[in-house]
């Protein structure tokens, strides 16, 4: 993807991989980069450094994902690349983790990607362009594997429009590896 003059949103952009993505997209000449993080100071620091905008959000609720999209579109215009990179580690454990902890993991590691797709794919399809980039960790402990669900959910949430411009010789079913 050519990033020059594109509008990019990076969740989890205040640190780690998200920060590196935001910095690279800005260096590649993106028109605007929205740095989204639950840590306000971190989001602001990265946004100031790259000339982007900071958005503070808790992406464990669909309303927050929609708000992030609305704010980024309001400032820069239609989103060309949405990098769904936010993630959490805590709470750690297994069967002893309370339901609320499991739900929080599920919401940030799976549902936030689904909510972003619901919000963005119809407009991207109308424009005939746009990308969703979902980050999932291969380092997750065996008891916490929402990224396996993410892979399947990503393929299904974008549906046929995700593969519409891809040559049929390169298409794979959403369940193939």
Account of the protein in words:
- By secondary structure, this protein is of the alpha/beta class.
- The protein has one domain (7-170): Rossmann fold (3-Layer(aba) Sandwich), CATH 3.40.50.720.
- It is built from 5 helices and 5 strands.
- The protein has helices at 16-27, 40-50, 62-76, 99-127, 146-158; strands at residues 7-11, 32-37, 53-56, 81-84, 131-134.
- It has a 5-stranded parallel sheet with strand order 3-2-1-4-5, sandwiched between helices.
- Helix 4 (99-127) runs parallel beside helix 5.
- 40% of the residues are buried.
- The model is unreliable at 164-177 (pLDDT under 50).
How are helices and strands ordered from N to C?
EHEHEHEHEH
Number of helices: 5
Cα radius of gyration in angstroms: 16 Å
General form: globular
**Strand order, sheet with most strands:** 3-2-1-4-5
Fill in the CATH topology: Rossmann fold
Secondary structure: helix percent: 40-55%
Strand content: 5-15%
InterPro entries: NAD(P)-bd_dom_sf, SDR_fam
Pfam families: adh_short
Organism: Paractinoplanes deccanensis
Family: Belongs to the short-chain dehydrogenases/reductases (SDR) family.
Give keywords.
177 residues; Rossmann fold; 5 helices; disordered C terminus; SDR_fam; oxidoreductase; SDR family NAD(P)-dependent oxidoreductase; NAD(P)-bd_dom_sf
Topology (elements, then pairings):
Elements: E1 7-11, H1 16-27, E2 32-37, H2 40-50, E3 53-56, H3 62-76, E4 81-84, H4 99-127, E5 131-134, H5 146-158
Parallel strand pairs: 1-2, 1-4, 2-3, 4-5
Helix pairs in contact: 1-2, 3-4, 4-5
């Amino acid at each position: 993807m050519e990033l020059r003059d594109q509008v990019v949103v990076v969740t989890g952009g205040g640190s780690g991989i998200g920060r590196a993505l935001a910095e690279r997209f800005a260096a590649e000449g993106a028109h605007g980069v929205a740095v989204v993080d639950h840590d306000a100071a971190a989001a602001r620091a990265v946004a100031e450094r790259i000339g982007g905008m900071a958005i503070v959000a808790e992406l464990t609720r669909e309303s927050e994902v929609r708000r992030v999209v609305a704010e980024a579109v309001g400032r820069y215009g239609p989103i060309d690349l949405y990098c769904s990179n936010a993630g959490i580690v805590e709470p750690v454990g297994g069967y002893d983790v309370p339901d609320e902890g499991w739900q929080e993991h599920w919401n940030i590691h799976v549902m936030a990607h689904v909510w972003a797709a619901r919000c963005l794919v119809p407009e991207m399809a109308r424009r005939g362009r746009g990308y969703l980039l979902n980050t999932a960790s291969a380092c997750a402990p065996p008891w916490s594997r929402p990224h396996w669900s993410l892979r399947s959910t990503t393929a299904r949430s974008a549906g046929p429009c995700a593969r519409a411009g891809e040559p049929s010789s390169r298409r794979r079913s959403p369940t193939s590896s």
